[in-house]
Amino acid sequence: MILKTFALFALSLMVHLTLTPPAQAQDAGAWIQIEAQPNLAGAEDRARAYTALFPETNGFLLRSGWYGIMLGPYPADEAATRMASLRREGLIPGDSFIAYSQDFGDQFWPPEGVAPVAPEPASPDVIALPEPEPVPAEIPDETRSEARDSEVLLTEDQRKDLQTALQWFGFYQGGIDGAYGPGTRNAMAAWQEAQGMLEPTGILTSRQRATLLAAYRDETAAFGFAPVTDDEAGITITLPLGLVEFDHYEPPFVHYRAKDGTGPQVILISQPGDQAAFSGLYDVLQTLESVPMTGERSRDEARFRINGLSDSISTTVYAELRGGLIKGWMLISTPGNEVRDGRILQAMETSFATDSARALDPGMVPMGAETRAGLLSGLEVRKPRFSRSGFFIDATGTVLTTVDAVDSCGRVTLDRVTDATVTLADAPSGLALVTPATPLSPRAVAELQLAPERVGTEVMVAGYSYEDRLPAPVMTFGTLEDVTGLNGEPGLKRLAIATLAGDVGGPVLDATGAVIGLLLPGAAQGDRQLPPGVQFAASAAEIARVLAPAGVTPLQAARSGALAPADLAATGSGMTVLVSCWD
């Protein structure tokens, strides 16, 4: 009997919709919101399923950024009655509620040019419709005085609920205290004004309070916000468990994956550590593919925040150092979900609390030494295209390297994290000057030896032989074979030394610690192949000549006496820089 009644109801509704212009119906009527989905694909699937039963199914983008599925529009005095009837028959969810078109954005269902699915025709043996239930007359809304009187009857918790709902939708920024001062009144007026057809009195009527709270409950139910206490990590935080679910531990991270495979991801951060470890975590996180290089950064000794944004990834990271423990979180999402992600960030930030006595045990999950050393467990690391060497040429951190090290790079960094700009590229000499985005404080600055050197002198090259795989430069020793090129070219020095590609751009030092040249990349010799170990360096005099027009005056060496091997290595290491080329 229910199916027959429903078929006649659907048929009569189709006739009604056919005779009523859609624009007029939408403007004059009300809607029954039956569901909301966080993404368009899921909403279209659900709307398609509902359309098979309800030809009046529509879909609209909501203010929250979610996608709402509606039935209607119905005359304003019939919507509540129809909703109650459909609820009793179990045809729509029990938490469905009345919504109005001023709260909707763009329409996504039915698809443009696609007709709704028609319901099954009524059975021919049904002779007459049952008597409809009496439709109650629409109750007029409260006056301002009546609204104030009904507001007085609210409990403290009910007043706090309204403040929470106003805060959720971005109208209220104050504390949740249940006290209705100027901040709360202004928020109420702003909400009323945003509805489009309400007078902004700053006092909500009973009907307006119900509408606001229903919209808030609908959204929070879809997010599934719930407090999560992770005893292993020593973190308590509110997470959107309607969108994410626990995946696995990989210290120092706790991974929460997207439930549908396309939503956001959440990662909790928990590890023991001091100031050095805290700074190291800040640097390492920015090498991850999931943390875009563009975006705002802020950092002090106790906390840092990273906002990374690219065409495909939107990531927010927060971490703090307190009592020898590092705790924090990451939200990894995609652009275009700013409203949804703002809700999640608000819930996470306001609820984040830590246990001062516990952090994730680094040994709780077996992992390789490389993963443990890099703190990159389970996350893809962003790698430069290649890395070469350079050295500090002044006290502000300007670096001298080779043109090959910075040619055609989308981004250049110094020592992995400092962005830099190429300010000079001299093709004939092969020398390039790189200026850091913010001034640096080098441990050592090159001092050029401009006096003639004796052939046969022992020399040392400081360079990142293995590019970015080692945290410090390698010292390689060899001999100065000649003070010109093979064909007598001035400005070159020929070395007998076994170097690698990563050493190119590094300083060539004599026994006193003075810089006598810069290691150049191997030059093509046509059909000739040079013996192993033959390398060339730009001379100190050539370096000074190239830098002069750029206004850079390098220090000149006034050293005497050979340094002890350890001191020579410290001098070379202090001035040498890893220069990385990124796409």
Report on this structure.
Helices cover 26% and strands 29% of the residues. The longest helix is centred in the N-terminal third of the chain and has 18 residues, at 2-19. 35% of the residues are buried. The chain is an alpha+beta fold and 583 residues long. The two termini are 67 Å apart.
Q: Give the termini separation.
A: 67 Å
Gyration radius (Cα, Å) is 35 Å
Number of helices: 14
Strand order of the largest sheet: 8-9-10-14-13-12-11
Q: Low-confidence parts lasting 5 or more residues at pLDDT below 50? A: 1-28, 116-129, 132-138, 367-378
Work out the helicity level: 25-40%
Structural class: alpha+beta
Shape: elongated
Annotation, overall tally of beta strands: 29
Overall pLDDT, averaged? 84
The main pleated sheet reads as:
7 strands, antiparallel
Approximate strand percentage: 25-35%
What's the helix and strand layout?
Blueprint lengths: L1 H18 L2 H7 E9 L2 H12 L5 E6 L4 E9 L3 H10 L8 E3 L4 E6 L34 H9 L3 H13 L13 H13 L11 H18 L1 E6 L4 E6 L3 E7 L2 E6 L6 E8 L2 H11 L11 E3 L3 E7 L4 E9 L2 E9 L4 H14 L1 E2 L14 H6 L11 E7 L6 E4 H4 L4 E4 L3 E9 L4 E6 L10 E2 L9 E6 L10 E9 L9 E5 L10 E3 L5 E5 L14 E6 H8 L7 E2 L8 H11 E7 L1
Parallel strand pairs: 21-28
Antiparallel strand pairs: 1-3, 1-4, 2-3, 2-5, 6-7, 7-15, 8-9, 9-10, 10-14, 11-12, 12-13, 13-14, 16-17, 16-29, 17-20, 18-19, 18-29, 19-20, 22-23, 22-25, 23-24, 24-27, 25-26, 26-27
Helix pairs in contact: 6-8
Give the key terms:
six-stranded antiparallel barrel, seven-stranded antiparallel β-sheet, 14 helices, alpha+beta, disordered N terminus, 583 residues
